[in-house]
Design goal:
This protein has 217 residues and is α/β, with parallel strands linked by helices. It folds into 2 domains: 154 residues, 3-Layer(aba) Sandwich (Rossmann fold); 49 residues, no CATH class. Helix content is 39%, strand content 19%. The chain has 9 helices and 7 strands; from the N terminus they run βαααααβαββαββαβα. The protein has a 7-stranded mixed beta sheet, with helices on both faces. Helix 2 packs antiparallel against helix 3. The protein is globular and about 50 Å long. It starts with a strand and ends with a helix.
Length: 217
């Protein structure tokens, strides 16, 4: 069977939501109000990110690098990633975060050539510019990366899609994946809305599921 695995990044592959922690650590006062406006649906995640990054003084590659040094990933993620490669299962990171951060965290752990679908960030001179190549004007959550659109497009290519997530940005795809792995806020959301899911604690649980089910392409 032609299958693929999609995974959220912050809080799913990383041990904590790194982007939120970065904003919390370095943004000036007022970022909490921006975050609340996003949580209340008053602004989009695109607007939220842009405004929060505007509140970070002296943003630099060095600042981001020093922060990334403090982040860790799920200890079993690399084993799962190697399992997908061994069995020719296509794997995608699908994130409403920023590729600049994702790339550097993966590089820190010696992980490369992973498909990443996310928002884009880059330094241009002294400015850090954000763009949103995977947005969708019809996105019900007005997200920077419309995960529903990503999943819908990939369904044209794959017979079965597995999704792994933990948070609010995963709510909209919870009932659209063929097999959903959930924890934290996503698991609560699934229970509250009677959405079928498999609860997991870490990537070791996901890996064991694949091994026990002998899931291969």
């Amino acid at each position: 069977m032609n299958i693929c695995v999609l995974s959220d990044f912050d809080g799913t592959i990383t041990s904590k939501d790194g982007l939120y922690a970065f904003i919390e650590a370095y943004a000036e006062e007022g970022w909490q109000n921006v975050e609340q406006d996003w949580a209340d649906g008053k602004i989009s995640s695109k607007e939220c990110l842009i405004e929060e990054f505007r509140l970070i003084p002296n943003l630099s590659e060095e600042l981001i690098s020093s922060f990334i040094d403090t982040l860790t990933i799920d200890e079993q993620f690399k084993s799962f990633w190697e399992y997908t490669k061994k069995h020719n299962i296509d794997f995608y990171i699908v994130s409403d975060g920023i590729d600049y951060f994702i790339d550097r965290i993966l590089y820190k752990y010696g992980l490369s050539n992973i498909n990443i679908i996310s928002n884009h960030g880059e330094f241009r001179g002294e400015s850090f510019e954000l763009t949103f190549p995977n947005d969708n004007p019809k996105c019900i959550n007005n997200s920077g990366t419309c995960k529903c659109s990503v999943l819908k497009n990939l369904k044209e290519k794959y017979e079965k899609i597995y999704y792994i997530g933990d948070g609010v940005s995963d709510f909209c795809v919870a009932d659209k994946a063929d097999i959903l792995f959930s924890k934290s806020r996503l698991a609560n959301y699934c229970r509250e809305n009677n959405i079928q899911h498999i609860e997991y604690n870490n990537y070791n649980d996901v890996l064991n599921y694949f091994i026990n089910k002998t899931i291969t392409n």
